Amino acid sequence: MAINANDLRKGQAIRMGNDICIVLETQHRTPGNLRAFVQATLRSINTGKSSVQRFGSTEKVEDVMLVKKRLEYSYKDQDVYHFIDPNSYEDFELQAEFIADAANYLTENLPCDVMFIEGKAVSIELPPTVTLKVTQSSEGIRGDSANNVMKPATLETGITIQVPLFIKEGELIKIDTRTGQYISRA
């Protein structure tokens, strides 16, 4: 389906030649007395590289159907992460390279939104916060009362983050998946 470049929105998928790209950002520009154009930052799903493209405001681009599925993380088997559709119980296998940094926050039964284009997974979206257990952390030093004193703590997924001194081993804490920072006790 062809749409005007003016109608491009963040998160949309379009076909560029033989490649399919995800729109990361769009800006509509009208420079002085020149014709208006749309400048879009696109990420190729084949190569993973980002590029900036300019389209005339009335130029047509081919829209590609993007399917969003809510899947639950099940388990990891070597370099393959297994997700399950809670409605149909269909198993989806995603490679470690695709999961990348999201692996730091995956725990059993964690719901994630996975985007598919033409049957191929193209992106994974974690919930904004997750609750993880602290597996290793040093004791806070008594009398160390300066504001915002932090210490490293290793969590059940293997990631190490900075937490306040009062956090102890075995506690559950909330983590922001976008920044990787400690939010609060759970």
What does this structure look like?
There is one protein chain. This protein has 186 residues and is mainly β. The protein has three domains: 2-64, SH3 type barrels; 66-125, OB fold (Dihydrolipoamide Acetyltransferase, E2P); 129-185, OB fold (Dihydrolipoamide Acetyltransferase, E2P) (Beta Barrel). The protein has one helix at 96-99, and strands at 2-4, 13-16, 19-29, 37-44, 50-56, 60-64, 66-77, 80-84, 91-95, 111-117, 120-125, 129-137, 150-155, 160-164, 172-176, 182-185. Strands 1-6-2-3-4-5 form a six-stranded antiparallel sheet, with no helix packed on it. Strands 9-8-7-10-11 form a five-stranded antiparallel sheet. A five-stranded antiparallel sheet has the order 14-13-12-15-16, with no helix packed on it. The protein is flat and about 65 Å long. It starts with a strand and ends with a strand.
Summarize the structure.
The model has no long low-confidence stretch (mean pLDDT 88).
Radius of gyration: 21 Å
What share of residues is helical? under 10%
Distance between the termini: 46 Å
Report the total helices.
1
Key terms:
186 residues; mainly beta; SH3 type barrels; OB fold (Dihydrolipoamide Acetyltransferase, E2P); 3 domains; six-stranded antiparallel sheet; five-stranded antiparallel sheet; 16 strands
Ordered list of secondary-structure elements with their pairings:
Elements: E1 2-4, E2 13-16, E3 19-29, E4 37-44, E5 50-56, E6 60-64, E7 66-77, E8 80-84, E9 91-95, H1 96-99, E10 111-117, E11 120-125, E12 129-137, E13 150-155, E14 160-164, E15 172-176, E16 182-185
Antiparallel strand pairs: 1-6, 2-3, 2-6, 3-4, 4-5, 7-8, 7-10, 8-9, 10-11, 12-13, 12-15, 13-14, 15-16
